[in-house]
Structures are given as structure tokens and as C-alpha cells.
Write a structure and sequence with these properties.
oxidoreductase; 13 helices; FAD/NAD(P)-binding domain; alpha/beta; 27% strand; 3 domains; 5-stranded parallel sheet; globular; 465 residues; 22 strands; single chain; Enolase-like, domain 1
Length: 465
């Protein structure tokens, strides 16, 4: 049995783990990162990155079929899905190999295997070459999450999770998506663009729970234009394979219904990977949901053990995990780093894109803040009109008394890029006046931030007050 000693061990090499390992090494620590499956984690391999590659390919395919508005005629648009998958894999491989290079360049040792805590200073790793024992001073747990599997919808060849949906070898003729959350809506959009007959079954009052209904209505309208059927307020009882297809039984308004499709994508949430780590051998406290409890430095109740990302409270976002990774690594080095962000942006890569940060008008009211909500439509922006993408709006939420920006919501093209400026504005306590007085280049989509701020302070130029 091989034995090793290190200063800091990181479990998991996803966007939390590999960032933690690199930052810890930069701060002079000897670091080992343990990864049982993918360098880059779920995000780079079977999550954020490959899904965006497929979203991009499907968007171009759908656009190419409607280029006549620009005076362009393409007689026939074909798709070779094997080449689409090759493109996706190329994107993934480029990024994961880049992470490997970064780890090597920062002198981080990578151990491929499954880690189990023996105690608060020892980890056993099952590798392909045999067992290793690693003794450490500090550990950062960054093991991420996995899709929830329901007893009534067991994963199989035809009943798949998000990973399965990303790796299909063919474009299905029909697809049922159980769950209208972010992952479900993004992947439903991919296959709707490619011509699949998509049915979305959502149990809640609307898709994309928690997002403004003015935004979700635009996304639903876009899906329906592509032939997708969005059904909300249903209870999905079961899904099973039958005769080479998948059958779903659900209840809608008290009536039991059945639908069959080539595949069923079950996307009803993710659960933290904390159940097979041997944490019971360390004394680390977990919540009823299996989340690790941490303080503002991502430190658990055991002083030398830290946790970040999907396994602690908060949104399951890669950029949140990376932020926490740096805080944990710096805390181990004795720096006074703490989680001190005001807000975390979130993006839905639907069509059109949705990006949100900070308060909504409703959440501000719940927090006892007297807030004002103002918006500006993409339809009044020259760049959006030239792009022929005019659905959506920029919406700002400001403190009524001070004018300070406390929240923002965008739905429209490039919303994911535009939200960065507004995140900085909120973190910096900028006011609507500050944004209105900042000159934005013309013609750009970013101008709408300035235009919305002008609405907020009472003198809009390009819409009637």
C-alpha cells in the first residue's frame, strides 16, 4: 500500500476542486487533488460546457432554416448529429486538457481514484493500481452533486438523466422532459431546435421556478413556436421502458394520462455527493439534505476540513464553487478571506437567454426594501433589431430612496454576457444615475443598461415615458 503525505488534499477536480488546488499551491502549499472520474468535473465534461456546445449547434441549425429574413436563401439545411457530437467532444477535450495542464503547471499532484476518509487527517484512495493512503494537514471537499433518480423513474436506456441526453447518438423523433427547471429547459430547447417533438411536464405552477413570469412566458412562447408542448401543474407518476420506447404516466387536473416517446429525460434536481465519503469518520456535520455545514471561510465544524460548491448551501453553480474554492484555499493559508459577495449571478441558456442577479421586486419587498422596478425592451434597441432578436427586456430593481441598484433581470440575446456589468454595479453600490451617466458604445446590446437606468431616473430617450 502506497503512503503519501501532503499539506492540503482536495477531493474532486471540478470547477471548485481544481481552482482550490491551484490557489492552494500558489500560496505555497503542497497539494494533492483526488478525482475519481473526470478532470474538470461534471461542469466541463457532462454539464455546463457540453450543453452549451449543443445549444450553440442547435441554435445555428434552427437559425439557418430561417435566414430568409436577411435575404439569404439556403435551399436545404442538413444535420449530421455524429459530427455535432464530435464538435461537442472537441470543446470538452480542449478545456479538460487545459485544466490538466494548469494543475501540472502549478505543481498539483493528481491522483485518479475514489477517496474515503479514515479520520480527520487520513484518506484512503482506491485507484486502478491499488490502494493509496494520504495523510494531510487540511482538506477541501469539492465532490459536487449528481442527478436525482426517482424510484418510479429508474434510469435506463430510454429513461435518461442530463448526461444521457447530452450523449445521444441520434436526434430523437420525440422526447419527454420531466422537470421544467434550468437543465430541463435548456436541453428541451436543444432538441426542439433540431426538430424533435418535445413535451415538458412540470409539477409546479410554472417552468423555471422562482424566475419572473414575464420572462418564463417568453421562453414558453419560443418553445411552442418550435413545436414543443409545455404542460405545468402535473404529477408524473411513473416512467418505464416498453417495446423499445419510454412510457410516462402522469396526472393532469385529476385525469390520468399516458404519453410515449423515444426517450424520457428526468431532470428533477441534483443531490450532494456526500454519502460515500466516510464523513462519519471525521465528525463533520451534515444537514438533513446531506449538505455540509460551513462558516464564512467554508470551514466545517472540524477545523482542518473545508467544503465548497454543490455540497454546501446556496445555488448549485460552477462560478459559486470557484469563488468558494479561493476563499477556502486562502483561509487554509491563514489569510482573512471570507465569503463577502453581495450577489451571485445566474443564467439560463434558454432561447432567449435569461440572466438574473440580486433582488427581484418581490424579494426586495419580502426583505422590507422599498424598491422600484423599471425595464427597457430589446425591441427598442438598434443592435437587437439588426440581429432580428427583439424578444425580451432589461429590468433593473433600485432602492426607491437611494437609487442604488439592488437587482437586475435580463431576457434576450447575450443576457449571459450583459449581466456581468450589473453584477459589478450591485457589488459596488452604484446608482441608476451612475449607470445612466456611463457612456455605452452604440449600437450595442449593452446600451440597454444605460437606457433602463434612464427610465429609472425618469428621463428615457428611446421609449416614451
Amino acid at each position: 500500500m502506497e503512503k503519501k503525505q501532503t499539506d492540503t488534499v482536495v477531493i474532486g477536480a471540478g470547477p471548485g476542486g481544481y481552482v482550490a488546488a491551484i490557489r492552494a499551491s500558489q500560496l505555497g502549499q503542497k497539494v494533492i487533488v483526488i478525482e475519481k472520474e473526470y478532470i474538470g468535473g461534471v461542469c466541463l465534461n457532462v454539464g455546463c460546457i457540453p450543453s452549451k456546445a449543443l445549444i450553440t449547434a442547435s441554435h445555428h441549425y434552427h437559425q439557418a432554416q430561417h435566414f430568409d429574413v436577411f435575404g439569404l436563401s439556403i435551399p436545404q439545411v442538413d444535420v449530421d448529429f455524429s459530427k455535432v457530437q464530435e464538435y461537442k467532444e472537441g470543446v470538452v477535450n480542449r478545456l479538460t486538457s487545459g485544466v490538466g495542464t494548469l494543475l501540472k503547471g502549478n505543481k498539483v499532484e493528481v491522483v485518479k481514484g475514489t477517496a474515503t476518509f479514515q479520520d480527520g487527517n487520513t484518506i484512503k484512495v482506491e485507484t486502478a493500481e491499488g490502494e493509496q493512503v494520504i495523510q494531510f494537514k487540511d482538506a477541501i471537499i469539492a465532490t459536487g452533486s449528481r442527478p436525482v433518480e426517482l424510484p418510479t423513474m429508474k434510469f435506463s436506456t430510454r429513461i435518461i438523466d442530463s448526461t444521457g441526453a447530452l450523449n445521444l447518438s441520434e436526434i430523437p423523433e420525440s422526447l419527454v422532459v420531466v422537470g421544467g427547471g434550468v437543465i430541463g429547459i435548456e436541453l428541451a430547447g436543444v432538441y426542439a431546435n433540431f426538430g424533435t417533438k418535445v413535451t415538458i411536464l412540470e409539477g409546479g405552477k410554472d417552468i423555471l421556478g422562482g424566475i419572473d413570469g414575464k420572462m418564463t412566458s417568453i421562453v414558453k412562447r419560443g418553445l411552442k413556436k418550435k413545436g414543443a408542448n409545455v404542460t405545468i401543474g402535473v404529477f408524473v407518476k411513473s416512467a418505464e421502458e416498453k417495446d423499445g420506447r419510454a412510457e410516462v404516466i402522469y396526472e393532469e387536473k385529476g385525469e390520468e394520462k399516458t404519453i410515449t416517446a423515444d426517450y424520457v429525460l428526468v431532470s428533477v434536481g441534483r443531490k450532494p455527493n456526500t454519502d460515500k465519503l466516510g464523513l462519519e469518520n471525521t465528525g463533520v456535520q451534515l444537514t438533513d439534505r446531506g449538505l455540509v455545514q460551513v462558516d464564512s471561510q467554508c470551514r466545517t465544524n472540524v477545523a482542518n476540513l473545508y467544503a465548497i460548491g454543490d455540497i454546501i448551501a446556496g445555488p448549485q453553480l460552477a462560478h459559486k464553487a470557484s469563488y468558494e474554492a479561493k476563499v477556502a484555499a486562502e483561509a487554509i493559508a491563514g489569510m482573512p478571506s471570507v465569503i463577502d459577495h453581495v450577489c451571485i449571478p445566474a443564467v439560463v441558456f434558454s432561447e432567449p437567454e435569461i440572466a438574473i442577479v440580486g433582488h427581484t421586486a418581490a424579494s426586495a419587498k419580502e426583505a422590507g426594501i422599498d424598491a422600484t422596478e423599471t425595464k427597457f425592451p430589446f425591441a427598442a434597441n438598434g443592435r437587437a433589431i439588426a440581429l432580428n432578436e427583439t424578444d425580451g427586456f432589461v429590468q433593473l430593481v433600485t432602492n426607491k430612496d437611494s437609487g442604488v441598484l439592488i437587482g437586475a433581470q435580463i431576457i434576450g440575446p447575450s443576457a449571459s454576457d450583459l449581466i456581468g456589468e450589473l453584477t459589478v454595479a450591485i457589488e459596488s453600490s452604484l446608482t441608476a444615475d451612475d449607470l445612466a451617466l456611463t457612456i455605452h458604445a452604440h449600437p450595442t446590446l449593452g446600451e440597454m443598461i444605460m437606457e433602463t437606468a434612464e427610465v429609472a431616473i425618469g428621463h428615457p430617450i428611446h421609449i416614451v415615458k
